[in-house]
Amino acid sequence: MFLSLFVLLGAFGTKTVYAGCAESTVLDYFKCQDVVGKEGTCSTPYIRQFTFDCRTDTCKTYAAVCSSNDLGNCKYHASTSSCWFDPTCSTGDCGTGDPTPTPGSGPTPTPGGGGGACGNCGGCFSDTNIPACPADYPNNAGQGVCSKDYHACCQPACPGNGDTPTPVPPTPTPTPYCTVTINPDPVNIRAGESQLISASVVEHGASNMYNRMVFAIIRIDIATVNPLIDSTAPYTSTVTGVNRGQVVITANAYKGATYVCSVASTVNVFPPTPTLTPTPTPTPTPDPGQCSVTTSPAVLNLDISQTAKVSASVTSGLGSATISQMRFGSYNITIATVDPASDSDSPYSTTTTGVAFGSTAVWGTADLSDGRTCQSGGSTDTDVNVNGPTPTPTPTPIQILTPTPTPPPTVTIQGRHKNSIGNDLVIAGQNVTISGPSGTFSSASSPSWFFNSISPGTYSVTASNIVDYTTSYAVCINCSPPSGAYTIGNSLTVNLPVNSNYADIYFKYILMPSPTPTPVKVSVIGTVYDDPAGDAGGINKCIGPYGTPIKPGGGSKVKVNPDDREGAVEGNGSYQVSQVLETGSKTILLQGMDPQYQCTCPTGPTGCQYLSADIANGSNSDWDFFVSQIRPRWLKVFEGSAHVQGNLINNVPSGNVFIADYSGDDPGALTKSSGSIVNFVPGSLSSQPLWNFTDQLSASAWKYGYRAMWLRAANPSTDPGDGGSAPAAGVYRKTGDWAILGGGSWSNLSGSRLIFVDGSVTINGNITLADNQAFLAVVASGNISVNPTVGNDDRKASPTAADANLTGAFFANGNFNAGTTETQTDKQLVIYGSVAADAELLNGGNVNTQRDLGNSNSTSPGVAFIWNPFLILNAPQEFTDAVMDWREVAP
Fold first, then answer.
1. Is 877 helix (H, G, I), strand (E, B) or coil?
2. I need a surface site. Which of 142, 186, 583, 679 has the fewest CB within 10 A?
3. What percentage of the chain has pLDDT greater than the value 70?
4. Tens digits of residue pLDDT in 571-595
5. CB count, 10 Å around CB of 572?
6. What distance in Å separates the CA atoms of residue 742 and residue 69, rounded to the nearest whole number?
7. pLDDT higher than 80, residue 614
């Protein structure tokens, strides 16, 4: 809400004072006879001020008091509507025969007439603050001409009956004169602030010729002074800023009712420190906080045409934002200007130039990268004082009283930037430019802007267009705020012909809706490739090697969600999914593959699909899939034989064998117990498929179980240690589970070691023998398990003894577990020696190969057993007996 109150004083034939309630509505004006009894029509804490008509003005404008003839014969509110005029009045200002003249009576005063104690009244005074009238204005006229709780103090009646004043012979006295000074000079304050001032008198040629000081300000809409009269030296009063602007204050020295001398000074009222109005936002974005700008230096004293640098910086609230530009401006460009008006490079500065005598301030506003603006104001502005030319000293003459000069007429153009719902709006690029009699000026201040102290006349007012916004305006002349409808456009013309006219203009910015784009539909295209080695990979899209295109099943297809569109995989592996919206995140998945196929890329817990695929901007092609046939894990025996006590299902790849030939010789044989089932599909047993024998082994005749061998070894009891390092050559027994660290001292073992473990064994590293004379056997009553970290990354189709991870004989009454990571990325385990599970033939365990090499299963066994003939040669007696009865089985 804006409040604008104007008091118009001037040398007119009929003097009219305009006033009204301190409210933001159009003021009602009344004639003097219309206002009696209406003093209470305003709401608390406001008061109504009325107009009144004075008689012909014969007194000097802007002087101390009015004669009674200059006051309308009606009630008026004296607290703000007192009009003060020079006490030197014509004889026409006297009444006719009354001790105290009746207001409004007597002949029309003659300008320039004689003065003196002629019934002039000193205005209306508060009954509380000034209950008694001074000696030179002794007559208390009561409430006849003043409003309630106020009284008038007047001079004695004119001599005689008032028709013809009785001349009083003058007493020859020296012409009195003096010099009055005001301190401080000028008075610089901000609206809402007060400043104590003092006035002093230097006498010339006389003494004790003044006994009071009368203070006066003609534009109480800009500043007020209180008290108006001080009768005790040192003479002081208080000036209070009301609205931004410049006004004249006078200090008038009196001897009794006689005006002696005066001085005029300037009161510069600067705007109050602006209160930033937060811009409401439609989303719950956390408030980044208030910020402020400080300009430097704090005070700048210039001569006319002199320049100086002013810099600015954000001193609080910047946060993580950066400064896009710093804008500068002068509150009164008739006193000082700035150039440039903005600076985008740190350190941010401008050049200030003194234009005319007076005081103003330079402000800085920072536009931040997060859309906020930071402003200086009040104590953070740079106060600029422009000094006039230094006068040439001259001898002090006898003072010749001259009228106080009338300030030039001025008008104001002001307003605010608003959004679509009428709230204050701050956005980058807001700027208002006016052009008229005073020149062309711009203001980037936001949300409020103003141009004051400009000459009356017609002005064009233009707001800069903001990209993506439509602009409209509403205007109110001599009223605030604008209440009419908004007009589309960013430029208008206002006519302000009279002093103190003002225009209040609101510019409204409405964000234009973005056009709805037409949805673009594309086809998602790709190919399915055979990737038997599983080498494909990538970050966003899978890439080669690009093998043979393949259709992984008769019902295979590709589907795109959330569009719910799909396309079949063709015989050449290609696919196309049409009518897919280009915008948004997509899921592209391969479906309907036959069971023997698996996806090698993309892979993940969600299956064979791309997640969050972006197909916009030409990225709708090359969404390829890579698959391979699921290849079962299997084992292979090299240069040795195998015995199966139960059943054996070994998925030997097509073209491969379970038992390989000896180097330059035939393969070993397979023996099995009666009733055992063996299957090597799609491969075969060996190059000699008929070498498949049935033996008659039984638990009572078999000699390689834990207990039988331990008893034959004379019940050894020496503990082999914790398994961290290999024990010395010898025969040992471990009671309880045992872990072999492997590697280190378990590498290149020499001598013979036979270790019985009454429990289960875990092997965590490689075990190798030094030469062909060494021997190692581990016999466990429980399981023997190999850690899946033991093995070779190089998965060979035909490994040799040099590739061995474990060398020796490993017999378990329970299971022999080769170990697996269950991720189809297992290492190949190579054993150079012998392995037995269910060593006592009591159906207590199995040989579990477990190792899954993924796509390498097509060529390489997960576990390779290589016959080691040196174990037989170097074995102790316990390992040399065997009872077997082999029989050839008919094919």
1. helix
2. 142
3. 74
4. 999 999 998 988 888 999 999 999 8
5. 12
6. 125
7. yes
Q: Are 781 and 734 in contact (CB under 8 A)?
A: no
Q: Is the pLDDT of residue 502 over 80?
A: yes
Phi, psi of 74 (to 5 degrees): -160, 170
Query: CB–CB of 251/213 below 8 Å?
Result: yes
Residue among 123, 121, 108, 120 nearest 56 (CA): 108
User: Could you give the CA distance from residue 621 to residue 578 in angstroms, rounded to a whole number?
Assistant: 12
pLDDT of residue 300: 92
| pLDDT-above-90 percentage for the chain | 42
Quick check: 612 pLDDT over 60?
A: yes
Q: Quote the tokens at residue 250.
A: 């006078």
Q: What is the DSSP annotation of 486-547?
A: -EESSEEEEEE-STT-EEEEEEEEEEPPPPPPPPPEEEEEEEEEE-TT---B-SSS-B----
SS3 144: coil
Task: Provide the whole-model pTM.
Answer: 0.41
Average pLDDT over residues 553-566: 93
pLDDT of the residue at 288: 56
Q: Is the dihedral of CA 353, 355, 358, 361 positive or negative?
A: negative
- Residue 818 has a pLDDT of 95
**Phi, psi torsion values for 885, nearest 5 degrees:** -130, 95
The per-residue pLDDT for range 749-761, each reduced to its tens digit, is: 999 999 999 999 9
Q: Structure tokens of 78?
A: 């004296």
Report angle CA 67, 73, 78 to the nearest 5 degrees: 70
Cis peptide before 545 (omega within 30 of 0): yes
Are 292 and 374 in contact by the 8 Å Cβ rule? The answer is yes
Q: Edge-to-edge strand order for the sheet containing 761-763? A: 738-740, 761-763, 784-786, 816-817, 847-848
In one-letter notation, the amino acid at residue 555 is G
pLDDT the model gives residue 64: 35
Which candidate, 115, 111, 33, 119, places its Cα nearest to that of 76? Answer: 33
365-377: string of b/e by CB count within 10 Å (b at 16+)? bbbbeeebbbbbb
Kindly state the tokens that stand for 761.
């064994």
Report the amino acid identity of residue 167.
P
Q: What is the pLDDT of residue 174?
A: 47
The 10s digit of each residue's pLDDT in 2-60 is 222 222 222 223 333 333 333 322 223 223 333 334 333 444 343 333 333 333 333 32
Instruction: Write the burial class of residue 51 (CB in 10 Å: 0-12 exposed, 13-18 middle, 19+ buried).
Output: buried
Between CA 536 and CA 628 the distance in angstroms is: 11
Residue 549 DSSP one-character state: B
For 786-796, letters b (16+ CB in 10 Å) and e give bebebbbeebe
Cis peptide before 138 (omega within 30 of 0): no
Q: Does residue 75 carry a pLDDT above 70?
A: no
Per-residue DSSP letters for 605-619? TT-SEEEEEE--TT-
Cis, bond preceding 407 (omega within 30 deg of 0): no
Rg (C-alpha) for the chain, rounded Å, is: 55
pLDDT value at 198 more than 60 = yes
Residue 785 tokens read as 């398990």
Q: Output the six-digit token pair for 398.
A: 């006898």
Amino acid at the residue 690: L
Closest C-alpha among 880, 825, 866, 845 to residue 637: 866
pLDDT at 693: 74
Amino acid making up residue 728: A
Judged by DSSP in three states, 716 sits in: coil
H or E element: which one contains 80? helix 78-81
Does 656 score more than 60 pLDDT? yes
The DSSP 8-state label assigned to residue 171 in this structure reads: P
What is the H or E stretch that residue 707 is in?
helix 706-712
Tokens of 800: 């040799």
Work out the mean pLDDT of the chain and round it to a whole number: 78
Distance CA 805, CA 801 (A): 9
